[in-house]
Amino acid sequence: MNEAYVVEAVRTATGRRKGALAETHPIDLGAQVLNALAARTGIDPAALDDVVMGCVTQGGEQAFAFGRNCVLASDYPVTVPATTVDRQCGSSQQAVQFATQAVMSGTQDMVVAAGVESMTRVPMFSNLKLYEDAGIGTGSMSPMMINRFGVPSFSQFAGAQKIAENYGFSREDLDAFAVESHKKAAAAIEAGMFKDEIVPVKTGDGMFDTDEGVRPGTTVEILGGLNPIEEGGVLTAGNASQMSDGSAGLLIANERAIKAHGLTPIARIAHVSVSAGDPIIMLEEPIRATRRALEKSGMSLDDIDIYEVNEAFASIPMAWLDALNADPAKLNVRGGAIALGHPLGASGARLMTTMIHALRDRGEKYGLQTMCEGGGTANVTIIEAL
């Protein structure tokens, strides 16, 4: 079977909701990442077999063959196909995994895996509201689902709160974790660590090239002044991921494509897997998914140099560290979604892009990425930097 390699990995800087990227159409965000992948690798885009695009809220400007629309807005020829994937927060990590499976099988040789989300222009859950406003249907939970699980809806907030309670995390614990995320991200920006991975985006004010959600001066005391999301709970806007706008993408190829196009890979994809568990608590599945991935790959956490565990809420990576007895010094070494933002459909590719560049910059070998996802699923990808 073929190996799957990453030839290039890029992202936009992440914009705050209603921030620097608010006037940029999400299709154009995706197109600029596609163009950057071609420009940086020197490939002829006509040679691409497919584009797999992650996007969660597929409504409004992100509706109607969204991945294909990104291709049509780019400099790629119209002969390049594309599709759109929704595995909730793991959508573009799943895009990478689908691309990996395609090139490993040999049915395709070179595929772009990417993701986009504009949470400014297409707010979270706005695709559900369209149906409510039209008076059509009863929402995303069917009678059979409600009867099976005994709840009228699945809530990520309730799941994250329950995880904090189960692991004994206090409000101060979560806020302290959030402060560290901002500190790591701010240090990475100050040191220019994101320069190689970020594609500058044209905006009305010029070129946007720096993540704008990072708060270098925040403290536990400042975060302690925020109101909880739910009364009596420990979750706040300060210890949860930021709603954001952004895009990211990777060029995935097998040996045949690398030889044919004279490419130099920057990483090898060593393992891909996905698992699913309890849809009610929902966000704890990365723990079981990681154990399963390590068993299937014959590796241990001691073999892994850095981990990227998405900071949807601080309680998620904290529980992952606790349950797996993992080294916190290896976690989200350049900050996570609490500081850098969480543009839903783009985050999987964003985390992987940052992880690959961090591994190479640090002279390290293996990185493991996992994300909690709506419905109780979790992807795991293990990368070997080259």
From TrEMBL:
GO molecular function, one term: acetyl-CoA C-acyltransferase activity
Gene3D superfamilies for this protein: 3.40.47.10
Enzyme Commission code(s) on record: 2.3.1.16
Keywords: Acyltransferase, Transferase
Record's keyword annotation contains Isomerase: no
Residue ranges of every copy of the Thiolase C-terminal domain listed in the record: 263-384
Residue ranges of domain Thiolase N-terminal in the record: 5-255
Active site (record annotation): C89, H342, C372
Matches recorded under InterPro entries: Thiolase (IPR002155), Thiolase-like (IPR016039), Thiolase_C (IPR020617), Thiolase_CS (IPR020613), Thiolase_N (IPR020616)
Keyword rRNA-binding attached: no
Family: Belongs to the thiolase-like superfamily. Thiolase family.
Protein name: Acetyl-CoA C-acyltransferase
